């Protein structure tokens, strides 16, 4: 009797946590902001109820990166250099489920892997997208949004998602008037543009001073503070919200996107969007309330 043959194992499956999309077109939003419109079959089923996404793209000089494979423990198994893709965290600017498109805005503010990718990206280039995930903006009776140029795509996304009766203030530090954008927002949100006009990014107190000078309504019982941008500024404003304004950690969303004095690669390797333990503790609690495993917060 012939022994039954053993089925031959197929090639390892690609990691389930990412979708492979392609660049459909590019747009110039402002002189220093470039938008990539991505699409493809794998965008089906994607949601925009969160906004943090992982972008995976080929290193410079590599036509097609090697995408991570599904490991036996559920974690991704990454290819070796030079095929390993570059991974960065960005904001889902918008998602059009009907058209099967999403947009990601890149600030062309420095020489780094992501900036160079955004400059050279062209229709047909493949991009991996993971997520979306991250904390949600909680219901509040008064909102504070504060961020620099790198936080503008996220602030724009959040403002568009707020209820029509939301009230509060959004402070956005940008290089100059040419970087202002037309943002959709509730009428009750006051938008203030802070022009650096030559002040060095990350080495000025423009945003910090504006937040500290902003009056908070005495009647607000459930304020929410959203602060993102240069790391030292974010840390200072996080401390201000906790210590001076007495906000609970669940009333604060504060993330550093970059740090003055470190280039994109150095900051990503050292901090990868540095967040304090309060952020992770709060996110794990919110995930538990939604029935999602806490590992998703890591």
TrEMBL record:
InterPro entries: FAD-bd_FR_type, FNR_nucleotide-bd, Riboflavin_synthase-like_b-brl, SIP_FAD-bd, SIP_fam, SIP_rossman_dom. It comes from the Bacteria. Residues 16-139 form the FAD-binding FR-type domain. Pfam families: FAD_binding_9 (PF08021), SIP (PF04954). Belongs to the SIP oxidoreductase family. This is Siderophore-interacting protein.
């Amino acid at each position: 009797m012939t022994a039954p043959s053993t089925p031959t194992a197929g090639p390892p499956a690609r990691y389930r946590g990412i979708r492979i999309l392609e660049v459909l077109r590019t747009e110039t939003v402002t002189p220093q902001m470039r938008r990539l419109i991505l699409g493809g079959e794998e965008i089906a089923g994607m949601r925009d109820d969160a906004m943090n996404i992982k972008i995976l793209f080929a290193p410079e000089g590599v036509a097609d990166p090697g995408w991570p494979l599904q490991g036996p423990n559920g974690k991704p198994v990454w290819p070796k250099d030079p095929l390993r893709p570059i991974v960065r965290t960005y904001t889902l600017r918008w998602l059009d489920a009907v058209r099967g498109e999403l947009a990601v805005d890149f600030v062309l503010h420095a020489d780094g892997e992501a900036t160079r990718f955004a400059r050279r990206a062209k229709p047909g280039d493949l991009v991996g997208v993971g997520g979306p995930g991250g904390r949600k903006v909680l219901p509040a009776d008064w909102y504070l949004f504060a961020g620099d140029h790198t936080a503008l795509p996220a602030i724009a996304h959040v403002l568009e998602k707020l209820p029509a009766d939301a009230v509060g203030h959004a402070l956005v530090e940008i290089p100059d008037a040419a970087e202002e954008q037309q943002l959709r927002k509730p009428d009750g949100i006051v938008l203030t543009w802070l022009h650096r006009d030559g002040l060095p990014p990350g080495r000025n107190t423009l945003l910090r001073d504006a937040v500290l000078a902003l009056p908070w309504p005495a009647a607000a019982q459930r304020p929410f503070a959203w602060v993102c941008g240069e790391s030292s500024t974010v840390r200072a404003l996080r401390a201000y919200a906790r210590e001076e304004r007495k906000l609970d950690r669940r009333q604060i969303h504060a993330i550093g996107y970059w740090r003055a004095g470190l280039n994109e690669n150095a900051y990503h390797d050292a901090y990868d969007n540095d967040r304090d333990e309060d952020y992770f503790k709060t996110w794990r609690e919110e995930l538990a309330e939604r029935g999602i495993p806490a590992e998703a917060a890591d």
